[in-house]
């Protein structure tokens, strides 16, 4: 096999890899291990005093304030349970503004002053921790020398055990706030937004006659796409090691154009990883359900069942941590970057969203005759209004330098936020706009034409993969979030904008009822107003088409193509007032998140620019020069021997090599420059100067990859990374 020594070493490592022994017993069933490492409802019921258990459940199920007096009893039971399962330490786990999880570990054991130790874990330790907050992104909320920050126990997300060969750790999900009480994390605003949405939903439900609607929550089911490559290849690529995507790489002869990978047979090695990862996730109570090959070679998907949004967000972070660990155990690297390979599909994290509760069911369930389901129509209309009024905020909630490579490409929704309703609901709302809905398109049947196959029921509407925000039967699917990001920011935004919209609906209905209008007539008028004012956001066509770009502009829909176009939406007067009004983010907290996002954008692109300079200048350029020298020596030797020499190959190498030299020099100058304008100026410079300079280096390098001798090319190629597993 040809290839440079480094690439051959990596390929040989793949060939000689021995899978780990199964980490589960043959007799185990998923039901036996599910949640075994979770301080679950059943565990609490068995270990807590009855009064304490009832108090905790009232908080978890009913949203009642947490009674501080239960903390000692819960802490004692939690410690005993964890130590029974081999835990030696506990950790408050929190979610700073990095899209990663953070944790601080402390031992249960404390010296007793007599040469031995005792296991201690008090209620105050469970409820509150104090990690150093100085080195986390804070967007100017405080000076970096002010280090104090607090973690606070989130009782609604259960504690769990993380296993390690050398000892286990009790992990306690928490919020993370500054010394002055501002949120420094993703969980605190998510919980606040959850309450805001619930408060307004209950107002609307009360108007529909629900005397005790119970706790209303948002639910989420995020679909996680990812790539797998052999770890030997990953370790041979500085770009993958440092930024999670390939900054160089020519398109392979075969990519995804045959559609043969999508839902194909899962390779044995990958399936072994999936089974192992799912087992670890089951033990942690993460309800992983679906697995399959995705569109691009080397790309896969895992999807959990629906959970309360706060728990779903925590589980998503835990899923990524677990998959990274298990992949390495199987000699592979899992890539969550939105676009790790140019020219093939990138990866998203589609967030399926609904809201409801035990007493009211799913509030986005239309039933068989949605035209008769006034309550559903009101809640669905509230979502339509929310997305139309705050589409810019939704786009900003998924904005990042990494997701910019994906949004608008053929595998992802465009940057224009619109809603797909499907034929049935589009028809119902069209009837509403004309004075009242009287019918709904019914489900059909599909006859395949083979006697041995059953007649299949069909939905009253198709799906639309080009829509960023699509109704899919009993929920909405927000397809724009990126694979790498937490689902908390989009869920914070969805909860808050829906809260504002439900607030509007409740105000309108209450005013009309107070004026003496009959309830159904009042509902019809509110629905008519919403469809009239906000129907422009409904689009059931091809979101990838050029015509939609023009039509969307005529409808007044924003097309925020890059992160720096989208982020200012976070700090418009309307957005600041929105988040402040519903107690989700203060104006200072909103501004801080805007500053953090700008800084992370500039830092991310800056790191990639330095990597492009390093790889282009010290790895690819020398390899191309060696090949150019070989060719030049060959031409010289032929001419010296009196043989006519063909210089076309030398010219084919020399032209892109000259372009690479020039592009590297320009990128070096761009990287060395320090732009003015603070964080915003740095971010704009990264987008407008560094990214184009990097693209020029890549274009020349990728052309060289197609002409340089294979035994001299230093980096694992797309063909190797995507197809050798």
Instruction: State the total count of DSSP E strands.
Output: 20
Q: What's the Cα radius of gyration?
A: 28 Å
Strand content: 5-15%
The rough form would be described as globular
- Helix share, percent: 40-55%
Overall description:
Helices cover 46% and strands 14% of the residues. With 725 residues, it is an alpha+beta fold. Strand 19 and strand 20 (476-478) form a beta hairpin. Helix 20 (587-640) packs parallel to helix 22 and helix 21 packs antiparallel against helix 22.
Features:
single chain, 725 residues, alpha+beta, 10-stranded mixed β-sheet, 6-stranded mixed β-sheet, 23 helices, 20 strands, 14% strand
SSE map:
Elements: H1 5-15, H2 30-33, H3 41-47, H4 50-62, H5 71-84, E1 87-94, E2 102-107, E3 109-111, E4 117-119, H6 123-127, E5 128-129, E6 149-153, E7 160-162, E8 168-178, H7 187-207, E9 217-230, H8 231-235, H9 238-243, H10 268-283, E10 288-293, E11 299-304, E12 307-308, H11 309-329, E13 332-335, E14 349-357, E15 361-362, H12 374-389, H13 391-397, E16 419-420, H14 422-433, E17 444-446, E18 456-458, E19 469-471, E20 476-478, H15 488-514, H16 519-534, H17 546-555, H18 563-566, H19 573-581, H20 587-640, H21 648-672, H22 678-705, H23 718-723
Helix pairs in contact: 7-11, 7-15, 10-11, 12-15, 12-16, 14-16, 15-16, 20-21, 20-22, 21-22
């Amino acid at each position: 096999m040809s290839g440079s020594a480094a690439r051959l070493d990596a390929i040989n490592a793949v060939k000689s890899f021995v899978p780990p022994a199964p980490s589960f017993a043959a007799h185990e069933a998923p039901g036996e291990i599910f949640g075994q490492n979770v301080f679950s409802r059943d565990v609490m019921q068995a270990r807590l005093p009855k009064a304490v258990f009832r108090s905790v459940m009232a908080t978890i199920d009913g949203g009642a304030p947490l009674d501080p007096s239960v903390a000692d009893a819960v802490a004692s039971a939690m410690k005993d349970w964890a130590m029974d399962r081999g835990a030696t330490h506990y950790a408050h786990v929190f979610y700073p503004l990095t899209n990663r999880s953070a944790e601080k570990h402390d031992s249960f054991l404390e010296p007793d002053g007599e040469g031995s130790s005792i296991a201690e874990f008090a209620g105050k330790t469970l409820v509150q921790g104090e990690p150093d907050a100085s080195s986390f992104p804070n967007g100017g909320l405080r000076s970096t020398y002010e280090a104090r920050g607090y973690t606070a126990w989130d009782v609604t997300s259960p504690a769990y055990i993380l296993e390690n060969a050398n000892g286990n750790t009790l992990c306690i999900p928490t919020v993370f706030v500054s010394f002055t009480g501002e949120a420094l994390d993703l969980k605190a605003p998510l919980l606040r937004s959850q309450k805001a949405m619930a408060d307004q939903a209950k107002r609307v439900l009360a108007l529909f006659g629900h005397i005790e609607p119970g706790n209303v929550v948002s639910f989420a089911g995020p679909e996680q796409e990812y790539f797998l490559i052999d770890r030997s290849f990953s370790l041979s690529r500085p770009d993958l090691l440092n930024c999670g995507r390939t900054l160089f790489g020519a398109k392979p002869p075969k990519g995804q154009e045959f559609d043969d990978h999508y839902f194909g047979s899962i390779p044995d090695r990958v399936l072994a990883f999936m089974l192992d990862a799912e087992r670890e996730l089951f033990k942690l109570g993460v309800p992983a359900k679906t697995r399959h090959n995705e569109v691009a070679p080397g790309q896969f998907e895992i999807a959990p069942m629906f959970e309360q949004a706060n728990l779903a967000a925590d589980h998503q972070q835990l899923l990524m941590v677990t998959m990274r660990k298990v992949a390495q155990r199987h000699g592979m690297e899992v890539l969550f970057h939105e676009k790790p390979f140019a020219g093939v599909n990138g990866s998203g994290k589609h967030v399926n969203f609904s809201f409801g509760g035990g007493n009211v069911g799913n509030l986005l369930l239309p039933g068989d005759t949605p035209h008769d389901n006034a309550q559903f129509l009101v809640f669905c209309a509230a979502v339509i209004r929310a997305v139309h009024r705050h589409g810019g905020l939704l786009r900003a909630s998924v904005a990042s330098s990494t997701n910019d490579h994906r949004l608008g490409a053929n595998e992802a929704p465009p940057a224009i936020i619109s809603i797909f309703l499907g034929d049935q609901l589009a028809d119902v709302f069209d009837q509403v706009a004309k004075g009242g809905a009287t019918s709904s398109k019914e489900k059909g049947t599909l006859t395949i034409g083979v006697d041995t196959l059953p007649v299949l029921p069909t939905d009253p509407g198709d799906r639309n993969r080009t829509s960023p925000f699509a109704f899919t039967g009993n929920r909405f699917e927000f397809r724009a979030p990126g694979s790498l990001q937490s689902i908390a920011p989009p869920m914070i935004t969805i909860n808050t904008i829906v809260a504002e919209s439900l607030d509007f609906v409740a105000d309108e209905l209450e005013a009309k009822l107070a004026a003496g209008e009959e309830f159904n007539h009042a509902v019809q008028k509110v629905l008519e107003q919403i469809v009239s004012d906000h129907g422009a956001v409904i689009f059931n066509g091809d979101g990838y088409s050029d015509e939609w770009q023009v039509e969307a502009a005529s409808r007044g829909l924003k097309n925020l193509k890059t992160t720096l176009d989208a982020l200012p939406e976070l700090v418009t007067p309307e957005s600041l007032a929105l988040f402040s009004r519903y107690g989700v983010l203060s104006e200072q907290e909103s501004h801080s998140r805007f500053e953090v996002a700008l800084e992370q954008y500039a830092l991310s692109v800056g790191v990639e620019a330095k990597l492009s300079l390093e790889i282009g200048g010290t790895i690819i350029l020398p390899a191309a020069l060696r090949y150019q020298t070989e060719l030049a020596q060959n031409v010289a030797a032929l001419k010296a021997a009196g043989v006519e020499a063909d210089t076309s190959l030398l010219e084919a190498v020399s032209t892109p090599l000259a372009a690479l030299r020039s592009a590297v020099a320009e990128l070096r100058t761009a990287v060395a420059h320090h732009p003015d304008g603070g964080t915003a100026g740095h971010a704009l410079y990264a987008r407008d100067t560094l990214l184009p300079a990097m693209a020029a280096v890549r274009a020349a390098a990728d052309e060289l990859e197609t002409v340089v001798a294979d035994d001299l090319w230093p980096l694992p190629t797309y063909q190797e990374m995507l197809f050798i597993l």
